[in-house]
Write a structure and sequence with these properties.
The structure is a single chain. The protein is of the alpha+beta class. The chain has two domains: 30-215, Trna Endonuclease, Chain: A, domain 1 (3-Layer(aba) Sandwich), CATH 3.40.1350; 218-314, Orthogonal Bundle (Arc Repressor Mutant, subunit A). The protein is built from nine helices and eight strands. The strands form three sheets. Strands 5-6-7-8 form a four-stranded mixed sheet, sandwiched between helices. α7 (241-252) crosses α8. The radius of gyration is 23 Å and the shape is elongated.
Length: 315
């Protein structure tokens, strides 16, 4: 998985406070019921009306295939490339707002210990966010105010809420994905501390992922990007379980060969298994994505290069 950076240290606070018992008397807040998959659990909470309306449309609630992000690709400006793509695990459309988010998503989605990835996850409990900001002595994010046409009400979000599975046990991890240079900005550090304490209040671990963390996984991200198109095989490219096992064994016969380019290996294996070359390439990408071939993905993988077989210590 990703080597996670420590939380920003420019804002320090004590343990997270409890939210105030009464809502802000200047706001006409309403109760919004939340589903059991949320950080806050199934209990209702008080939220501004425009937030409740956005929740009622399905944004920020549910899990796996039923989850819908609080922010969609067209809702926010982005300095990087924004993407929508269908999830390999969830089967739903994911909205990613930067290249850093996309690279992080590749690492998460391909990891066998990840059960669910929810992007643009809202911190809905407005009263708790305000209480944390007051406790830290910093300016609270502005929740209320006139909403721009076609845009959702502003609510703080974490970039990813990840469900990790270890056997029958599941736990959640919140990830904030930011360029390392941004963490030196005082206001960014303040908002990150609000996110951290909000998650801590609900017993959810929170971490920062930066471009420096992802740089250590450059080749892995490139390989996953190349293989992802065949993570779920098109029906026209599928073969029988026995045929797939034969295909893998034919590639594994080259484990002692560290000089033959991958393309020549694929051509040879395609002839051996009586497969079209394009189908053999798709099956190979599928096998690499799912870890069916013991490769060292910290090295370059591609058709022009020899396969980087993993040593026993690298598996």
């Amino acid at each position: 998985m990703i080597t996670i950076a420590p939380r920003p240290g420019s804002v320090k606070g004590a343990s997270c406070p409890a939210p105030a018992k009464d809502p802000d008397p200047t706001s006409e807040w309403v109760y919004a019921p939340l589903d059991p998959h949320r950080l806050e659990g199934p209990r209702p909470i008080l939220v501004p009306p425009d937030v409740a309306r956005h929740l009622a449309k399905g944004h920020g609630v549910g899990a796996k295939k039923e989850y819908r992000p609080w922010l969609l690709k067209h809702h926010v400006p982005s300095s990087g490339r924004r993407r929508t793509l269908r999830g390999v695990r969830t089967g739903r459309i994911h909205h990613l707002l930067s290249d850093l988010e996309y690279r992080t998503f590749l690492l998460l989605e391909s990891h066998p210990g990840v059960a669910d990835v929810r992007e643009q996850y809202p911190l809905i409990d407005v009263r708790l966010v305000r209480a944390i900001a007051k406790h830290l002595g910093i300016r609270c994010p502005a929740f209320l105010g006139k909403k721009s046409r076609g845009r959702p009400p502003y609510v703080p979000t974490v970039d990813f809420l990840v469900t990790l599975r270890d056997g029958q046990r599941e736990r959640q991890l919140a990830l904030s994905v930011k360029p390392a240079a941004q963490l030196a900005r005082p206001r960014v550090a303040e908002l990150q501390e609000i996110d951290r304490q909000y998650c801590h209040h609900h017993g959810v671990a929170w971490r920062v992922v930066t471009d420096r963390d992802l740089a250590a996984h450059g080749y892995r991200c490139q390989t996953l990007h190349w293989c992802r198109i065949d993570a779920v095989l098109d029906p026209s490219r599928r073969i029988s379980e026995r045929g797939y096992e034969r295909f893998l064994n034919a590639i594994l016969d080259y484990r002692a060969d560290t000089t033959t380019p991958f393309r020549r290996v694929i051509l040879s294996v395609a002839r051996t298994c009586s497969l079209p070359e394009a189908q053999a390439v798709s099956l190979a990408r599928h096998a690499i994505w799912h870890g069916h071939l013991p490769l060292n993905l910290s090295r370059r993988v591609g058709l022009p290069y020899p396969l980087p077989w993993a040593l026993a210590s690298e598996k």
